[in-house]
Amino acid sequence: MRRWLAALVAATTSLVLIALLVPLALLVRAVAENGAVEQATGEAESVAVAVGVVDRETLALTARRATEASGHPITVFLPDGGVAGSPARRTPAVELAARGRSLTASAPGGREILVAVQDAGGTAVVRTFLSDADLMRGVRETWLGMLALGLALIGIGTAVADRLARAVIRPMAATARVSHRLAAGDLSARAVPGGPQEARAMALALNRLAGRIGELLAEERENAADLSHRLRTPLTGLRLDAESLRDPEEAAMIAARVDDLERAVSAVINEARRRSGGRRHCDAAAVVAERVAFWSALAEDQERTTTLDLHPGPLPVAVAAEELAACVDALLGNVFAHTPEGVALTVRLSPGVLLEILDEGPGFPAGRLERGSSGAGSTGLGLDIARRTAESAGGTLTLGRGPDGGARVTLTFPADLSAGLTIG
Question: Which of 61, 68, 108, 257 is the most exposed place for a label (fewest CB within 10 A)?
Fold first, then answer.
């Protein structure tokens, strides 16, 4: 934007200067030409005074002295055809002036100033020649000065425009950075109002929006807490009703369903609280190591060769520990559910943060995997959980084939440098 504003001011200033300086340059040239013609006319008239008063030799001497003094060749064409002073040919303009008319005429390389003088023998013509250099004397220097002045004005205008643009853009850029921090989950970010009135208004509006978001999230946390207390009472009553049933098997079955419902409700409430509480962090190395250790017992029972390459950490990521654990469980659970027993398994965790889970099974089915459709007889939600976990931290999930033809799932998590303050 700064470049656009600077270019706009430079173009506008250039157009204004062209509209002013071009006519002024033409006027300077016309004034210089008129001054040179007036000076040459005066020189010619000073010689014309001697025509008819002095003899031919004295007239020639007078013309030569005037030529030396002015630097312009001065010639006197006498009525009898004689010439005194600087040699020159008799041009049609001289013939016209010999009829008694003083005039100025263009000539090759300059201009002729012709003064007609009447004497007893006829009409004499005093000719002064001005070259193009004489007519343009001082004009080019003036033009260069005007050009330098115009360029200086354009430069000053562009510099002032750039300074004003910077004063406008700087607070806008700062406000944009604050909005990005808010979008990333930093609800404590606030803009510092500054710059023009519009920029200050935008910063204040963004601050009010951030404050309102914080208030809404606080209300959501309170509502989640209220929901927890409200649901505990009917669940407790339902559990008591189940225990009062006479059939022990039916009572146990209903109690199990009540337990499932209570766990589901608790999970929903915890998820609402977690999302309301802002960003959380965890050590990916510790979480992955713990979940791999949990699944290692089942791997031994199924006689799976497990290769582990886990970075000791810490590897902080912007994901809650329970989220990352659920993600790893979903991916490892897919391997155990969709590959035959005895199929080898590899888990790698490297700095970056890069998590790879490979197996030597049949690999992914042909076609694109969508949410809710795995192509292998399952719900297909496991990979979607892993994808959403990675994307919530700014990472990605990639599906591919391993070196032995099996499935390869790769998750990338950007390193969270701010997690040193809060890990949980």
Answer: 108
- 268 upstream amide cis, omega within 30 of 0: no
Contacts of 374 (CB under 8 A, 6+ apart): 365, 380, 382, 383
pTM flag (> 0.70)? no
- The confidence score (pLDDT) of residue 152 equals 93
Element (H, E) at 131: strand 122-131
Residue 245: name the closest of 258, 232, 226 by CA: 258
pLDDT digits (tens, 9 = 90+) for 68-86: 888 889 999 988 888 888 8
56 vs 79: CA distance, rounded Å: 12
**pLDDT reported for residue 329:** 85
Amino acid identity, position 163 = R
Q: Quick check: helix, strand or coil at residue 322?
A: helix
Six-digit token pair at 233?
């009472």
| Neighbouring-strand partners of residue 115 | 126
Is the per-residue pLDDT at 24 higher than 90? Answer: yes
**Residues 95, 101, 115, 110, CA torsion sign:** negative
The answer to whether the CB of 375 falls within 8 A of the CB of 401 is: no
Cα–Cα distance between 419 and 313 in angstroms, integer?
A: 13
Among the residue ranges 112-121, 207-216, 220-229, the one predicted with the least confidence is 220-229
> Locate tokens 């006689």: which residue?
303
Distance CA 225, CA 205 (A): 30
User: Residue 288: how many CB atoms within 10 A of its CB?
Assistant: 26
- DSSP E strand stretches across 183-305: 282-283
In this structure, are residues 399 and 408 in contact, taking their beta carbons and an 8 Å threshold? Answer: yes
259 compared with 346, residue with greater pLDDT = 346
3-class DSSP assignment, residue 339: coil
